[in-house]
Amino acid sequence: MDASTALVEFARRHGVKILSDGDWDGILASALLVKWLRKQGFKCGVSEVEFPKPRKLYSMKIKDYILVELPPSRGYIVEDEALLFDHHGVTGLFLVRRGEQIEKLIKTREFPSAARLVSFLLDIKLAKGYEKLLKAVDLIDTGESRKDSFAWMIHKAYLINTDSSEFRRIVLAMLIEDKIKDLIEYLREESKAYDKALEKINILESRVRSISNRIAFFTTILVSETRELFTASLCLDWKKNMT
Asked: CB atoms < 10 A from the CB of 21, how many?
């Protein structure tokens, strides 16, 4: 059985419900799945896709979902069955049954992203705009986003919205509806917010005064928007992890 047949038969049995990792890879892979399933006659859209936070996913009861980058090791409980697209560890398409038993349907070579895996398994012919996004997501998912200016730009847009469900839904909707130009403009504006937050990090770091080896304080903190302070702290955490 090929991936197209497996996916169609699963969707006919259970309908379309997609549960995906909320990173760039998961968002793009989910959009590709929705667009492909629509072409097969299934009614689906943004409302059929969920991006659960890790703390919610743990011990979550899963029933009849199409899973993207969410192997059983993430801690969920399968009540019936689920169809898993994953490129971590063994790459391919899997059926996950009650008790987290995994049946390998299709094993493939390794891919840099789940989105690339989905496009390969379903033989999706990508438009130019989609191919550019997919190449960028390949770099992001392999930790090489800084090697390409476009990849780094869309990665910054994601980093500034790491905890935002709204950002994911906006991006997903634009991808599904092929509004690639609008999407890129939106991402460019969001990436500017990251740059602004990073500037604040440098200011905050320059204001740190050490009292002892365990205590420090900021001499002044003037932030007009809550989002800026919050996202600046996220960027600082990410910056530390990258150094």
From this structure: 22
